[in-house]
Write the structure tokens for this entry.
Amino acid sequence: MDDALRLAAKGLLAAAPCSIEMPAGTGKTHLLAAAAAAAAADGKRSLILTHTNAGVDAVRKRVQSFGVPPALVRVDTITSWAFSLVRSYSVIAGVSVTAVPDWTYSDIYLAGATKVALSAAIAHVHSISFDYLFVDEYQDCTLVLHEFVLALASAIPKAVILGDRLQAIFTFTGPMTSWDDHVMPHFPPYEMDITPHRWTEHNVALGRWLLDIRPHLKEGEMFDFAAHSVPGLQFIANTGQTTVGSIAHSFRNFNESVLLLDKWPNDVAGHASRLGGTYSVMEDISGNFMRRQLQDLPAEGDHRLAWWFACFAKECIVGLSGIDSVVKTQLARNKQVTHYTRKGLEPILAALDQLRLCPTYPHLALTADIVRAHPGLRVYRWEAWNDTREAIAMTSTNGEPAMDNFSRVRDRLRRTGRRSENRTASRTLLVKGLEYDHVIIADLNKMCDPQNLYVALSRARKTVSVLGRTSQIELTHS
């Protein structure tokens, strides 16, 4: 840690309780970790909470890089910390929970955890366990989350709130915390110099431009990309999918990461499919696409298992056009399909027929492996394919419902993080906090709200390619 960072970290600690707003790529995670390290150097212990497991992983790595002893820092998601309190003190919380959390009940966990944190005994435990409380990405806090944080801060008063209002894109989760009305009265603002660190070794001009345009990204403002000349930034008039494809395939250095962004899940999957599986779809953490598939999973012994698998495979793989409505109808009727002529897909038809005749979950997993290994087929929903297959394989072993096993698989992802992909298709909501060498915004006209547009632009370290019908958009709240 250099002297400037150490000084900034100590200044932040001295100002606690306080709040600080830092734009994307300006070293917020680095400063947070440095503050925890500075606290540890004085023998003080920190509790660091954020929203996502990706955020937890990023903070942990930074803290470890500063050599902070594990005994002097605890990093977790806000909801996981709440769940652990509710599970340990269910009577105080007034909430009964299962061993594996169901995150659709997050607000219930948080409300119960607030009661636990405010109880005298647990407040005392928190106060003697931690000297500092850090909460990151506070712009995404609902009022329920905010009340839980206030309960923690009553026991750990040296609290530091970090965030950025221009990255508040999770506004669909409930009534949101207002920085002016809810944060500042409890955590006074702390000011410091801002530097676009993310772009230092990649594209300094792009990083400086992203800071400069922040005041202009407001509802009601007109923003024209054609009026901005910045190295690494290009606007391209979108003439259809061919344009998206030509840009997406233009990045030849496969050691560099490329992110293709669109607004809606079906649009993202459509891009990945049309790009022939060269880009992999990032699924939402709850796995809603996979859950919808598993809701229709037939029981073992039901011949429709082959029909279900054929439908699922077509949603994840490029090259299965031959498994058409005729084939699927025959499978649904428990009829043979190997007599159909589907050039190159004869082994797939044979595997589907075998699954129809032996409709078990172990045989389904075997069929999935056969399909995956077949030459000429490209999986573009790797995450969905692997996690769904694993959940079904677990069910064949432990006999528990596939949906329950799927929850276990996804909960593990929350804790361990995603596998990195160099070519990713996603929505803005799923990539906040992440960074890529190159970003492609597939349709500017769908990114007209300031927060989503800023988050999309600021994911790129080197270049941003913006496609749209027109270079000018009116910024509105979506």
About this structure: The mean pLDDT is 93. The first helix runs from residue 3 to 15.
